[in-house]
Amino acid sequence: MATSHTVQNPFNRLLLTGAAGGLGKVLRESIKPYARVLRLSDIAPMAPAVDNSEEIHPCDLTDKNAVQQLVEGVDAILHFGGVSVERPFEEILGPNISGVFHIYEAARRHGVKRVIFASSNHVIGFYKQDQTLDARSPRRPDGYYGLSKSYGEDMATFYFDRYGIETVSIRIGSSFPEPQNRRMLSTWLSFADLTQLLERALYTPDVGHTVVYGASNNPNLWWDNRYAAHLGFAPKDSSEVFRAKVEAQPMPAANDPSMIYQGGAFVAAGPFGDD
């Protein structure tokens, strides 16, 4: 939906952080219609620019000055950079916690008024799978990664209240080509639905700080997007077409975290450094 205005009125320059990651590589292609120039950033190696519609800017999110330079001249930021799995706190601290601060400070200094923050379902991972949540459910992070995303959402709220920078925080479920296990039958987000959600997040006016759960039109959803209805996100894909393939896998034990908690295995990661 609403694709006509994106083609007619692309942003002059969008910044995508985390461009070397799994989702970053997908979005590098899928969000091209929304920008005349796509600035791509990561600390890891990226493929060279294909033409003048791409800019390659390697950047360490822990380097405040480098992030300031990275953000200069962009119209909006899709912040997908940082550590994307559960790790010791010390490994999360720089890229995810200092990094998101550096992104928002750079946005403030350069007058960028729209950020799309790749949050995560791990912000609420300690809820049970028989509970239905919305954006106002108290957060229950399931690890240091989830804590860092919870902090990023608070950063987004502060920078809107204090400086008027609007954010859509997308609590991404499981965005892969197809669901990989039983839990993902509820949390799966197709690449096409993610792209549609990014389009709505970029172009919907007056979002303030909106929190939206990123999941496709799956059966047995755990998440209610009533407080993000203004985005007009209408996922088209469903995990149901993969059900038989997933359910052919051996059944996990009843006490396996992936069968109990919305965050799955993340709730049981760590502790780290006790050796």
Describe the structure.
The chain has 275 residues and is of the alpha/beta class. The protein has one domain (3-268): Rossmann fold, CATH 3.40.50. The chain is built from eight helices and seven strands; from the N terminus they run H-E-H-E-E-H-E-H-E-H-E-H-H-E-H. The protein has helices at 3-8, 22-30, 64-71, 89-110, 144-163, 184-187, 191-203, 243-247; strands at residues 11-17, 35-41, 54-56, 76-79, 114-120, 166-172, 209-214. The chain has a seven-stranded parallel β-sheet with strand order 3-2-1-4-5-6-7, with helices on both faces. Helix 3 crosses helix 4 (89-110) and helix 4 runs parallel beside helix 5. It is globular, with a radius of gyration of 18 Å.
- Could you name the CATH topology? Rossmann fold
Assigned CATH architecture: 3-Layer(aba) Sandwich
Total strands: the figure is: 7
- What oligomeric state best describes the polypeptide chains here? single chain
Main β-sheet: number of strands, strand sense, barrel status? 7 strands, parallel
Gross morphology: globular
SSE ordering: HEHEEHEHEHEHHEH
CATH class: Alpha Beta
Gap from first CA to last CA? 53 Å
| Mean pLDDT across residues | 96
Widest sheet: strand ordering: 3-2-1-4-5-6-7
What name goes with the CATH superfamily?
NAD(P)-binding Rossmann-like Domain
Q: Low-confidence segments, ≥5 residues, pLDDT <50?
A: 1-6
Instruction: Provide the β-strand percentage band.
Output: 5-15%
Q: Compute the number of helices.
A: 8
Q: Rg from C-alpha positions?
A: 18 Å
Tell me the structural class. alpha/beta
Helix amount: 25-40%
Number of domains: 1
